[in-house]
Amino acid sequence: MRLNKFLSACGVASRRKCDEIILSGQVSVNGKVVTELGVSVNEKKDVVAFDGKVVTLPKQFVYLKLNKPKGYACTKSDEKGRKTIFDLVESNVRLINVGRLDYDTEGLIFLTNDGEFANLVTHPKFHFEKEYQVTVEGEMKESELAVLRAGVVENGVRMPKAKVKFLSFDGKFTKVSVVIDEGQNHQVRRMFDCIGRSIRLLKRVRIGAVTLGGLTRGKTKPMTEEEIAFFKENV
Ligand code: URA
Predict the structure, then answer these.
(1) How far is the C-alpha of 203 from the C-alpha of 78, rounded, in Å?
(2) How far is the CA of 186 from the centre of ligand 1 (A)?
């Protein structure tokens, strides 16, 4: 098995991230640091270590949904010392986050020890939809929503189109639903910045066919077989 695939199957990170980890010299095979990509390992015989610790294939995969609150970073350890989503999870297996949400974004994110699952959910070629509820101060005009739908132009480059639906206006705040199928950095915030609207609250409510449902903020819940299968069957 290719080393990046093995590391990812061990739950170290998604396959692409594992390539970066290999290149940075954090991985050894049978005691020898490997920095080339494309090395194969025999998962029955070879001893693979990441950051000095031997990694093994999990006996059982774990898949969780988390309702991330604002004010938590999606990282194992935050360089600014901020709280991370892993402070919210009790697990005796080592988990990774599937994609990211900004520090100030809340809502649905998956955690797993199955790096291959993380890889397929986040891989750009599979275009799994991500739905956000966006709260903006003031009343948004239909013409603004039309610009977001068509793809805003940022520094001369057109951003991807989005499905955008008006949800409500309560006299002070407008709520809209935004569905994107790419995962560019800060994509939704950048879209709204481009039309001069700053986001008051950004919440992810769905990934593919999996919704946040009634999951309490800050809590986790195991994904169902059907929820997991949706991603595996749609690639
Ligand atoms: N788009 C953003 O701008 N931020 C997120 O956290 C997710 C999508």
Answers:
(1) 21
(2) 4
